Structure formats: C-alpha cells, structure tokens
Amino acid sequence: MAFALKEQGNEYFKAGQYKEAEDFYSQAISVRSNDPKLFQNRALSRIRLSDWRGTEQDSRKAVELDGKSMKAHYYLAQALLNLRHVGEAHKEALKAYSICLATKDSSAEVVGQFVLRAKQAVWQAKETARLREMNETLAVVETMLDKQLERDLAYVEQRYEWHEIGEMGRGEEIEQLKKEADERRRNIRAAFARSDNPDTQERVVPDWMIDPITFEVMHDPVITPSGVSYERVVLLQHLKQSNLDPLTREKLTESQLVSNVGLKYACSEFLERNGWAVDW
C-alpha cells in the first residue's frame, strides 16, 4: 500500500502539484515509517513549497534512517541554509558532496556549487557580525531590514493560507522579497563603506584559484600529470566526454588525478577571508 501511495505522490510531483504530492507521501509514511526514501520524497516536495522547517524535519529523519543518503544530506543542507543555520548547512553540503564523489553520482557538480553557496553564507554571517560590531548605526539599520523582511514573509504566508495566492506565487514572492532585501543590504553596506573608507581596495580573485575549464573558483582541485589543476567534478565531467588532458591533449584517466591538497587549503583559506569571491 505504501508503494501505491508513493507512486501517486510521484505523479502529482511530476505534474507540479507539490501540496498533493506531499499529502500522498505523508500517507505512505504513515504506513511505512522506516523508509528513508519516503521522507526524502516528502522533503523534496516541501523544498518546492518553501516549507523549510518541514524539509529539515524530513531530511533529518532520512539521515537517521540512512546516513549514506546523498539526497538526505543535500536536502537538509538546503533547508538549513534557508533557515540561516549556515554553519551546519555547510557541513551537510560537504557530506553530500563527499558521497557524490564516493559513488560517482552525476549530481556532484550541482552539489559542489551548493557547497560554495553555503561557504559564502558562512562568510557573510561572520562579516555581518563583524560589521555590526564595528558600526552601531549599521547594526540598527540592518536589524530594521531583517524585521521588515520577516513581516513581509509572514504576510505572504498569510495570503497563501487564505488562498489569495497559489504555491507558485508564494514561492516567487518569497524569492523576490529575499532578493530585494539582499540588494538593500548590499547597497547600505556599500554606502557605509564609502563613508568610512573612500579608498577601498579593489577586490581581485587570484588566477591560481580559477578552474581553467569553467573559469570559476575552485574548492576541490585535483592536479594532472601535466601539472595543471582543475575543479574535480568539472574535470571528471570532461573525461566522460574525452579521455584527453584539456591542455596537453594527451591521454588522461581518473586514476592519474591527484588531490591538490595545498591548493585546496589555499583556496579554502582565501574564501574564508573573502567570501565575495564565490560570486566572481
């Protein structure tokens, strides 16, 4: 019976009817409460519904039932990031990424990008605390922005409960409100920075941090026999299409790749101090 309920949930999910999918997964869980995949499915539905508390609960249960589930850790990381538990979100994202590498999961590149997002969020949280400590006025203004965002989000939830907007409208409005709040925060900080230090130093990402294929910042580099380093998942994806070194065009296999621990540490340290570099 649980299988049939799960299949019905899957059909609703494919149709974009996430609330109905969530309901069927809940019914399936009531029949079989020890199946981690059912909790994963409901967690994904709740991600689509922007129900981050529910996503966190389901993902934690899925991790409890199957600690090696990449999806469970990844969904948990997404929930935690949206709930602003950035440190734990980063840790869970790293767990999901490690599982991807170990199992050669095709989601490794997507999860790897999320690791960078979570790392940036950790840096932003530290930067926020530092800036607010340095400037009392900035702290007051940003606190007001945070409270306004909370009120705006609560109003969206209220309208959703009153059926004034649907699931898609709810998600779009939440995303737009957060985007606008982030933009206002950046503008305010820029204004304070100009007033405090008009000779701000230009922020530059060192060339040695950039992957030669995607031109994005590396966070898990590997080195080839030719001495060039690449982002692991990017190079592995390249090798699926061609077994040649991107630079020398000589034959190259996965077994020849070596983790560039020194570069990985240097990139990590740079991002720790310069979180803005993630968006470079």
From TrEMBL:
Keywords: Coiled coil, Isomerase, Repeat, Rotamase, TPR repeat, Transferase, Ubl conjugation pathway
GO MF annotations, alphabetized: peptidyl-prolyl cis-trans isomerase activity; protein-folding chaperone binding; ubiquitin protein ligase activity
UniProt key word Coiled coil: yes
Superkingdom assignment: Eukaryota
Spans of repeat TPR: 2-35
Catalytic activity: S-ubiquitinyl-[E2 ubiquitin-conjugating enzyme]-L-cysteine + [acceptor protein]-L-lysine = [E2 ubiquitin-conjugating enzyme]-L-cysteine + N(6)-ubiquitinyl-[acceptor protein]-L-lysine
Protein name (Swiss-Prot/TrEMBL): E3 ubiquitin-protein ligase CHIP
Protein species of origin: Knufia fluminis
